[in-house]
């Protein structure tokens, strides 16, 4: 077992646990958006960042991917950590203003409004990629992917054309943290080949 | 097999001795006092027409016929660095330096210099201050102030001929390492040299190798990061184009040191000449037995593959680069695990940049002590910089670490046109920052640059003068990174555009002073929160300009004024009636017909038609056009 401290509390972790695993084992809450137990951690949303301190040195790491190490001093809600979370949430509020989940999470960090311009009031998708990873790692269908780069990035099927690779299992809808996949499902699902086979009979 | 200088096509070198024997014969076959013509065929000079110059020189030599006692060879080489003066022609052995040579000059060069042994005065470089013409490369301040380690063969050898490279010393370091040293000794030598990675972060190269070498056995990889993407940077391209064997040799040494049998060069597809020369170098090295099975009889097997990148800036980040080589989307992944434990295809891997690999070749050839004698205590060796922007001598320079910023820009660079100082020097590419004239005495090394709020980066150095607006510069770099962000992690994807939007407001005079506090806070969150260094360093452009040029930000915000006269929403063009001679130049230059006035009488600008393009300002020879 590895011993470390989280928010001043002595904790023990098994080798192979991440900091998030360890914190959750002890009921210490760390917010996440792109994390899900069913798929490999991705380290993209950065809400789960925690501060590692060693003497005067300090840095932020994503707790969902950072391994628990002997002797670490972890702070899950320091000012540095909360500054990152507040800015991400405020920016998300302008990016995907239709998401109730984001609004609630932001409110927990005292962010009630956003100073940034809203492009699409209907947008819910936060581009965490959970749907893509679930489709690949849980279902094995690889029907969807992130498409494009940076600000142009979106979730879609190949060439943004609905395709038969989607088996309409709904896993992506289930794992989506904001419910955005509900509205997108029709855009990626073609006529599922299973259904085709039945209708021929 | 017998090694002969004339025929290396059938030759396969089986030992260190055979390589050195070949080298000796190649050197003996070349008379150092013989007249030779060297023409720069780097990308810059090629674009300026150097192939035409080479052909014209060949024709002129043929036409001169028997007038020439000993027919000189013409050698085409990689980039000499002095790109703003190209095409360059150098006559050996005296190193007579001709600049901006055109095909029409070829006959005169042959008749005057080759036949009569006289210099062609009008083609010589003239010192900008005195106007005095100087004859040889050594007399030119641009070259005299440099210390060429990585670039030592570039401009001397024909990069497409392995014979030429071997004559200049190529593969001596690799041969020594493979046949006389244990892998750990090689790593220790690199550690002792103090070499730090030239790609940006400056991590000690030997220490990185050690991390990968400690995994015993199994598949490992070495990689060369040739995805040079910083705006204005062309160091790595020039090295690959001008001395590809230096990179190949470095990678052989690295592969031997960590126990890898395969190397990858990840080079952007926009560098076709570099790829061509690398491919030729690999084929030639393979044919000679310097790559492949049982290199030089050492029992070590190693080969290199070239991987073309499609030109994503983020693929210069090591984990994204490895994903791209694997055929996946080029997005960074969190570390740990570090590439030295789980890198390419999940195997221990070492990635170094082009210049680092070239340095490795030199270190193994000449020894760690020699290398450590160059540079400063913590930054050893030299650094290649691409010097661009508002500087007289645009080009590629290599200087010892620790040289003063002023010496690079004002002495080697020949200073700033029309000014005795620079306003700012941007180092480190988009991840770096802008240093002011007050930092002119700053020693240029890894740690000093970071302490000053910038960074070494891969070696871009952009000089700026009073006509460059710092808000606009920061906006440009943020715009670049916004385009190039992979979009995986939220702080970078969402934050960088928001930083740029804030600066956009400033450049329209719409910001408030509170916005600056917000900028600091947001920049801090993006720096600390981003997944990789692209986002982690993206705010540097804002932070460093705010640190040194805060008054310029305040002028935009509080006075709605752009002191440099760049931000279009904040400036007006006018004509000083006292200075205007009515020459009509601005009248003709204006694309909007906004200038009116009769000839020989003062002109005026109609502000409602003016699009603030600055054409009138550039056309005016009397300083009558004013920007406010």
Question: How would you characterize this protein structure?
Answer:
The complex is a heterodimer of chains A (201) and B (628). Chain A has 201 residues and is of the alpha+beta class. Chain A is 32% helix and 15% strand. Chain A is built from seven helices and seven strands; from the N terminus they run ββαβββαααββααα. Chain A has helices at residues 19-25, 79-95, 100-108, 130-139, 171-175, 180-188, 193-200, and strands spanning 2-6, 9-13, 49-54, 57-62, 73-75, 145-147, 154-156. In chain A, strands 2-1-5-3-4 form a five-stranded mixed sheet, sandwiched between helices. A two-stranded antiparallel sheet of chain A has the order 6-7. In chain A, α2 (79-95) runs antiparallel to α3. Chain B has 628 residues and is an alpha/beta fold. In chain B, α12 links the parallel β8 and β9. In chain B, α20 runs antiparallel to α22 (540-558). The model of chain B is unreliable at 1-7 (pLDDT under 50). The termini of chain B are far apart. In chain B, the strands form six sheets. A five-stranded mixed sheet of chain B has the order 12-11-15-13-14. A four-stranded mixed sheet of chain B has the order 2-1-3-4, with helices on one face. A four-stranded parallel sheet of chain B has the order 9-8-7-10, with helices on both faces. In chain B, 39% of the residues lie in helices and 13% in strands.
Summarize the structure.
The complex is a heterodimer of chains A (201) and B (628). Chain A has 201 residues and is of the alpha+beta class.
Largest interface: A-B, 36 and 31 residues
Percent of sequence in beta strands of chain B? 5-15%
Based on CA atoms alone, the radius of gyration of chain B comes out at 27 Å
The average pLDDT value of chain B, as a whole number, equals 94
Taken as a percent bin, the fraction of beta residues of chain A is: 15-25%
Helix tally of chain B equals 24
Number of helical elements of chain A: 7
Secondary structure: helix percent of chain A:
25-40%
* Biggest sheet: strand arrangement of chain B: 12-11-15-13-14
Largest sheet of chain A: 5 strands, mixed
How widely separated are the two ends of chain A? 58 Å
Order of helices and strands of chain A: EEHEEEHHHEEHHH
Regarding quaternary structure, what we see is: heterodimer
Shape of chain A: globular
Family (chain B): Belongs to the complex I 51 kDa subunit family.
GO molecular function (chain B): 4 iron, 4 sulfur cluster binding; FMN binding; metal ion binding; NADH dehydrogenase (ubiquinone) activity
Domain 4Fe-4S ferredoxin-type (chain B): 571-600, 601-628
Protein name (chain B): NADH dehydrogenase
